[in-house]
Amino acid sequence: MNRQSLVEQIKKKKSYLCVGLDTDPDKIPAHLKQRPDAVLAFNKAIIDATLDACVSYKINTAFYEAMGPRGWEIMEETVHYIPSTHLKIADAKRGDIGNTSSQYAKAFFEALPFDAITVAPYMGADSVQPFLEYDNKWTIVLGLTSNKGAADFELQKMGEEYLYEKVMKTVASWGNPGNLMFVVGATQAEAFSAIRSWLPDHFFLVPGVGAQGGSLREISEKALNKDAGLLVNASRAIIYASEKEDFAEEARIIASQYQAEMSNYLQ
Ligand SMILES: O=C(O)c1cc(=O)[nH]c(=O)n1[C@@H]1O[C@H](COP(=O)(O)O)[C@@H](O)[C@H]1O
């Protein structure tokens, strides 16, 4: 999905919500757990229930890789189930020497039909470039992450700049806002205005609302741009809104609440 289609979907839905499919087999409602296809059935029910409220799904590959070979198949079946109207993100946080990154890019962009992948930039230009070579796919590079450990490296100063600032500005010079996004955690709201001032056009994937406590209002006020420029992810707050048989309906309600709030900020 290219930038124009993504922006059209955001305007049509009045939503920049990304639903995170971080599906933990242990957290699936009891009535589904017995089924051999429990995780897939859970994902399909969540997708059916939230389609109208969101523009993207983010599949956190760790949850599927942890299930062994069947998990990889479930991930594949899930990504095929998501309609082409929605941006399909592989949250895989890959990045390695060039020839290995090329294989990661092939795995998620060709063998699997993802539109986007999260990439860790620590190994530098040659580790990120193979993903950026796909013009029609999105590379989403970790900028300032939502976790406590962001303080260990990302928020350390390198001369005048924070490390994350240097990383984001440098990576921005390798690609363009048509196929490059950055992860900026919602828990880092105080940094959003500055980041938006030096990257006015890029989309940011923003995890950290919901279970991690970030404020949708604050990041929206500070970082929405003319194309929205934000994809805000919530995983646990939506998919585990209920542990009972009504889990999909409850997920729909929470996703719709995010969508309604977003539609106010988009005006
Ligand atoms: O790249 C990510 O998606 C990501 C980056 C980051 O800084 N923080 C972060 O929480 N994430 C992911 O975003 C999701 C957040 O999940 P919830 O906290 O349950 O909404 C998880 O899949 C995380 O792996």
Query: Between the first and last Cα atoms, what is the distance in angstroms?
Result: 24 Å
Please identify the top-level CATH class. Answer: Alpha Beta
**The CATH H-level homologous superfamily:** Aldolase class I
Bound molecules: orotidine-5'-monophosphate
Number of strands: 10
Named CATH architecture: Alpha-Beta Barrel
CATH fold node name = TIM Barrel
Instruction: Bin the strand percentage.
Output: 15-25%
Question: How many separate domains?
Answer: 1
Q: How do the SSEs run, as a string of H and E?
A: HEHHEHHEHEHEEEHEHEHEHH
Quickly count the helices.
12
Helix content: 40-55%
Rg is 18 Å
Show unreliable segments: none
As laid out across the biggest beta sheet, the strand order is 1-2-3-4-5-8-9-10
GO molecular function: orotidine-5'-phosphate decarboxylase activity
Pfam families: OMPdecase
Organism: Flavihumibacter fluminis
Pathway: Pyrimidine metabolism; UMP biosynthesis via de novo pathway; UMP from orotate: step 2/2
Give your account of this protein's structure.
With 267 residues, the protein is of the alpha/beta class. It has one domain (3-266): Aldolase class I (TIM Barrel), CATH 3.20.20. The protein contains 12 helices and 10 strands. The mean pLDDT is 97. Orotidine-5'-monophosphate binds next to strand 10 and helix 11. Pathway: Pyrimidine metabolism; UMP biosynthesis via de novo pathway; UMP from orotate: step 2/2.
